[in-house]
Design goal:
The protein is an alpha/beta fold and 290 residues long. It has two domains: 124 residues, 3-Layer(aba) Sandwich (Rossmann fold), CATH 3.40.50.1370; 139 residues, Aspartate/ornithine carbamoyltransferase (Rossmann fold, 3-Layer(aba) Sandwich), CATH 3.40.50.1370. It has a five-stranded parallel beta sheet. The chain has a four-stranded parallel beta sheet with strand order 2-1-3-4. Helix 2 crosses helix 11 and helix 5 crosses helix 6. The model has no long low-confidence stretch (mean pLDDT 97). The structure holds N-carbamoyl-L-aspartate. N-carbamoyl-L-aspartate binds next to helix 2 and helix 6.
Length: 290
């Protein structure tokens, strides 16, 4: 909640309406071993808006990883060039491991099918802004709940707020048991559905995710579920009039373009929120504010 409150104060600087020098003289290394648009660029925008500088790479090609260097050695080297590291890597647990090797703070920008904690913070910030409250919502997490890292992190967080959760996914892409169990231990009420139309009537927040094609061991299995759920204006007619649609993006088949012009569409505002939230997080982990 503190990070979200600091993020709120960062909004004018995130928009460029005010200038910040909180991170002046500091360098953030942005190490992206996996594709990214929003996470990488909003981290960079956040650091720039704070008056800091960014070094790094957007793909591992062109670095010594191609020569066989280990992640541990890359991290030990890079940390001597910067004050903090933001990284994304295909391996689950990679950011945690990097944090053990590094003296500087390491922020996880997504570790394989594991977690995406900074996305989770901007998702919470978005729910709070759009709905006025976090816990007092019925939230449907929709799509690839097995491989989608954003929904693993968000489910944990919403459980702490005792939100009412519905997990809508094809059987083979339902939420991993360990995530479900931990959410239940925190007191979340959870229901499971496969049919989108039947489940969205009383939902306040529809959090839609892409089927994570790149994580399927068998491409044939992906084909069976590709395009399984689509939010369109017809479907929204069955939803609550004040319900919002969120998506971490990129979208493929999950939300038709016609939804973009409705008041329900929160996903581009959500993408912007990545900047103030990451500004808050960077400043707090760097210790320039508390
Ligand atoms: C997500 C990711 O990379 O996990 N995107 C993001 O960071 N905003 C979702 C996805 O790739 O489907």
């Amino acid at each position: 909640m503190h990070i979200l409150s600091v993020a709120d104060d960062m909004v004018p600087a995130a928009r460029g309406d005010e200038a910040s020098t909180l991170m002046a003289g500091k360098i953030m290394a942005s190490l992206f071993f996996e594709p990214s648009t929003r996470t990488r660029l909003s981290f960079a925008a956040a650091m720039n808006r704070l008056g800091g500088r960014v070094i790094g790479f957007a793909r591992p090609g062109g670095t010594s990883l191609q020569k066989g260097e280990t992640l541990a050695d890359t991290i030990r080297t890079v940390e001597s060039y910067c004050d903090l590291i933001a990284m994304r890597h295909p391996q689950e647990g990679s950011a945690r491991m990097a944090a053990e090797f590094a003296e500087v703070p390491v922020i996880n920008g997504g570790d394989g099918a594991g977690h995406h904690p900074t996305q989770c913070l901007l998702d919470l910030f978005t729910i709070q802004k759009e709905r006025g409250d976090i816990g007092d919502n019925k939230v449907a997490l929709i799509g690839d709940l097995k491989y989608g890292r954003t929904v693993h992190s968000l489910a944990y967080a919403l459980a702490l707020f005792k939100a009412d959760l519905t997990f809508i996914a094809p059987e083979q892409l339902q939420m991993p048991h360990e995530v479900v169990e931990e959410c239940q231990e925190h007191g979340a009420s959870i229901s499971f559905e496969t049919d989108l139309d039947a489940a969205i009537e009383d939902v306040d927040v529809m959090y839609v995710t892409r089927i994570q094609k790149e994580r399927f061991p068998d491409p044939e299995e992906y084909k069976k579920v590709a395009g399984i759920y689509t939010i369109d204006t017809d479907l929204l007619r069955h939803a609550k009039s004040e319900a919002i649609v969120m998506h971490p993006l990129p979208r493929v088949y999950e939300i038709s373009a016609e939804v973009d012009d409705t008041s329900a569409a929160a996903y581009f505002r959500q993408a912007f929120n990545g900047v103030p939230v990451r500004m808050a997080l960077i400043s707090l982990v760097a210790g320039v504010i508390s």
